[in-house]
Hints:
Its cofactor is Zn(2+). One of its GO terms (biological process) is formaldehyde catabolic process. By secondary structure, this protein is α/β, with parallel strands linked by helices. It has helices at residues 3-7, 53-61, 105-108, 170-173, 179-190, 206-217, 233-238, 254-261, 276-285, 310-313, 328-340, 359-367, and strands at residues 13-19, 28-34, 41-50, 72-80, 92-95, 134-136, 139-141, 153-157, 161-163, 198-202, 222-226, 243-245, 268-271, 292-295, 317-320, 350-355, 373-377. The strands form 3 sheets. Strands 3, 4, 5, 8, 9, 16 and 17 form a 7-stranded mixed beta sheet that branches. A 6-stranded parallel beta sheet has the order 12-11-10-13-14-15, sandwiched between helices. Helix 7 links the parallel strand 11 and strand 12.
Amino acid sequence: MSSSSSIDQPNVITCKAMVAWEAGKDLVMEEVEVSPPQPQEIRVKVICTSLCRTDITAWESQAIFPRIFGHEASGIVESVGEGVTEFVKGDHVLTVFTGECKTCKHCESKKSNMCQVLGLERRGVMHSDQGTRFSVKGKPVYHYCAVSSFSEYTVVHSGCAVKVSQQAPLEKICLLSCGVAAGLGAAWNVADISKGSIVVIFGLGTVGLAVAQGAKLRGASQIIGVDINPEKYEKAKCFGVTDFLNPNEYNEPIQQVIKRISGGGADYSFECIGNTGMVTTALQSCCDGWGLTVTLGVPKTNPEIASHYSAFLSGKTLKGSLFGGWKPKSDLPSLVNKYMNREIQVDEFITHNLPFEDINKAFTLMREGKCLRCVIHMPN
């Protein structure tokens, strides 16, 4: 047991949180009680949290309410639970929606980042005891992805937080706790893009543009961006996109256009929309023999993927990607260092900065396609 956990006896904290009471309805600012961290947990003062598309997908459709959403965040450790030796009060951290216990079969393998102990939590509770650390007037409020960063304070498992340099700006690096890291990792870890290759990206939101950045840094010769919003092209060029295709402007399937301008198909294609029909299109946009499609999006509907067997008979590959293949504790500190050394772009993804009370405006901006990332700043 660390000395801080034996000396400090954390109490319940009452703070402000944005609570979702119903699917698709505005979040409501509430006074919530946040329990002390239990064994192997830490309580974090959230400094900044950014809105991710996955939050919106879950808010629109999932049945677990009331709930505190948010998972892409940075903060400062307020207190630690029994048995926590890795963190002390005052440490700067990123929260992560998928953890790293470092001892399970997957954590010990170099082939996977799918922790068997602290993987994606879908039931709105803590990993350790299947309970919640939030309540409003004595009634439980559920978590999201075991993070719930739309609250001034939150409790996470110590395996779902990553200690970062205190010199790194928390209002920027919160993006590395999900979207930007997921896109870079899909390009570098999952696809392992080679120099001189042709890449096509479906969906030019934060994740798609992070894939483009990763492809550019790997020396891709052509990076084709596909999106129905023409306003995204100028921003996409900043991240390395060389060609912009709007499917609504063509009278033929977009995969045929891609095959024509790429000389037979892309070496790598990435589906970053969350549309399983688009996965098939992405597969068809790849070249025969070695074409690789990576799917990153989370679908709202129709989760099954359908594709003709001939795509695989011709040597194409379809791969999934969770958090870009990064092991969060092992790998995220090096990504933060790359940002600090100006080797990767992060600031350029931030299109809006909003105070905590305006979080519903962030939801509207993202739903209308008017932002990449809104960073929500918590009260001091």
